[in-house]
Structure formats: C-alpha cells, structure tokens
Amino acid sequence: MIATLTAPHTPVAYGGKPSCNAGSPLSPPRCLGEGSLSVALAGWGSSGMISNQPNLILQSYSASAGSKNQANYFKPMKKLRLVLMMLILLASLFVTKNLTAAVKGSNTPVLLGLYAPDYLGTQSVIDSQLRQIDQWAGKRHSIAGYFMDIEDSNLAYNIPVPLEQLWQNGYTAFINFKSTRQAVQIARGDLDSKLQKMAKAYAEWTNRGEGRMAFIALLQEMNIPGETYSKDPKNFKLAYQRIQKIFKDARVSPKTVRWVFAPNGWSENSEHRFENYYPGNQQVDVVAFSSYNWGYCNNSTWHHWDGFKETFDPYIKRMQAMAPGKPIFLAQTGTTSNTKNGSLSAAKDQWFRDSYTNLAAKGVQAILYFNINKECDWAIYSNSGKSAGYKDAVANPAFGYVSPIDLAKKM
C-alpha cells in the first residue's frame, strides 16, 4: 500500500550528456542519450534510494580498459545494461500502477444517503421516496438507510428483498440492526438462532454475485438511553464480535459486507463516550455517528439551535482520533425548522447550506439524511413541503454518486 506520494527528485547526471525530463509523481523521469541509465536511476524512487552506481561502474570500467580489450569488456556490459534497464522499466510500471490506483481511490465523492418513511422492499416506495427525490434534488443518492430488528418474524424474506430492490435500482443499503434485548443477552448467545437465520439470508443474497454488498450497523446508538441494549460498553463489544463470528460461520465473504460502528455523537457523560464502545479497528470498516439539530422542537427537552460546530465538528474530530484512516459516515442526521422565533423554513434551508459545505470540507465520506417527520419536522421532501436549502447544498460538486458495484470496489 502506498501511504504518500513523493515527487521524484530532479535527475542529476553523472557523466555523459543526457537530456532529461524530470517527470511527475505518476511517471518516472525520461532521459535520453549517454548516461541515461544513471540519470533515470538517480531520478526515480522514494528519497533517491535507487542509486546510479551501476552506470558509474559501467562508465569507469569501460574507460579503464585499453583500446585493444575495450570491445571484450563492453559486450557483457551492454547485456548488463539491458537487463538493468528492463528491471527499471518493470519497477516504474509497478509504481505508476499503484500510484494511479491510490489517486483514483482518493477521488471518491462525498456520498449522499436517505432514510425513507416506508418499507423499501417495493418498487413503488423506491420510486416515490428515493428516485423522485433524486430527480428533484438534481443529484443521485448512493445509499438508502433503514432499520430492522434482529428478531424479525420473516428474515428469509425481509433480508434479501429490500437489499435486492435497492441494488437493482442503484442504491447501496445501510442496515441498522437493532434489538429489544439487552446487550448481555446477545453477547452470551441467547439470540444465536435468529442471528444464524439472518446471516444465512444475507449470505444467500450476496452469493448472487456481481459485487453485492451492504453496510451493516450493529446495535446503533448504543451509548445513549432509548434502546434495551444501551449503556453497556463491555457487552456491546462482545455482542458485536459474536454477530460478526456468526456471519463468518455462515460464509459471508468480507468483500460483501462493510461493518459499521454507529454510536450517537452526544452522550450523557464520559463513561458513555462512544470511544468506550469501539470494538476495534480489526472489527470495523466504517465509523459513523448520529447527530441532529433539534432546535426548538416540541418533542425535545433541549432547546438550542445547533449549527455545524455544535452538531458535527467535535464528533468528527474524536472519530478521526479514535480510528485514523477509517471512512467517517453520518449514520443519521436531520434538522428541524423550529427556531426560538417559531418555525422558519429559511433557517432550515440555511442550516443545510452551511452544514453540508462544512461536512464536505471536513473529510466526511457519506451523509445519510433522516427524511422522516418523526420526533420533529426532519423531512426535506414530503407532502408538507420541500427544502430548497437541501437542494442548494447537494449541488456542491463535492457530492456525487457511486453505483453499488463501484462502491463495493472503492470502499
């Protein structure tokens, strides 16, 4: 893996009369004329670790030979020179290929996602609650989020059907698997039979091939009150690992699932900071968090209008410190229009413009918006109205679409 891109050093000629092009980070320097091998070797490589010594030897060796024996010395030297040049060519092709791949991977746009209010296993819902919003927003959403109970009564149907419907329509699923059981019950195996059915159904779907993959967030928002499994760091980590082992035993390929750690950003106290729940880099592919601007929503006990700095910035920084290099998603987010001065759609619109601009600049890889009027008027597109600010925000060229097949390759 290439960690950094280092521009090649300026070639330095040792003897001869070379004509050199210094090159670029994606192509080695090109040198023509006598002494070209020494220049190419000196000019390419990390920190100039490849030396020009072979050519210096060739030059000094050939120069030291008398005119009578010069031809005899020169023939094997020509062969050696040819072999070395071929090795350099192969090495440069390898480096160029890997550098190109690294640069290509870094160009993945910030992905957009949505939660829909209804069941995503039918084409009519996908048309009205995803595709229609894509058309209105002028920007395709790559990810569709939904929630599912581990003990769902029909896992054999409700696992593959929405996954396949979304995949066929160009969306990658983001499943929040929740439970009405305590974390300790899951950790000790009380739900193993259900989890085995879930893993089996998922494996059967991914075995259809063609790059089928989904994001799976296990026991989301585990660090705040509200869920039966909440506020138990030790058993959450054990439960997380147990579920992963069940998927592995069901022969779910690591290529077909991206495991997500998805706590809430805010927590009641330091004991329940999300860092205390992190299962570890080996268990997690994506780190994510939930955070909303509740404003002055009637259903909130906390009344304060929160912008980017309050809603997102501290949690992004903490996640970057906790899991350096891991992609960061906003697993859930939303904003109300309820301000201190009443409901103002203009305030909600401006929140989108400001927040999404900052999120794109801070290295967040995906934003999943909660387009459901549940606790507050979160929706951006519903019978009650449409948010022009969201449409403005996602027009930013930093946001783009990646198909399910390509996303499985890139992330």
Strands ordered across the widest β-sheet = 3-4-5-6-7-8-9-12
Largest sheet, strands/sense/barrel? 8 strands, parallel, barrel
Uncertain residue segments: 1-71, 91-106
CATH 2nd-level architecture of the largest domain: Alpha-Beta Barrel
Protein described:
The protein contains 14 helices and 14 strands. The protein is α/β, with parallel strands linked by helices. The protein folds into two domains: 19-104, no CATH class; 109-410, Alpha-Beta Barrel (TIM Barrel). The strands form four sheets. It has an eight-stranded parallel barrel, surrounded by four helices. It has a two-stranded antiparallel ribbon with strand order 1-2. A hairpin with a 2-residue loop joins β10 (338-339) and β11. α12 (345-361) packs parallel to α13. It is globular and about 80 Å long.
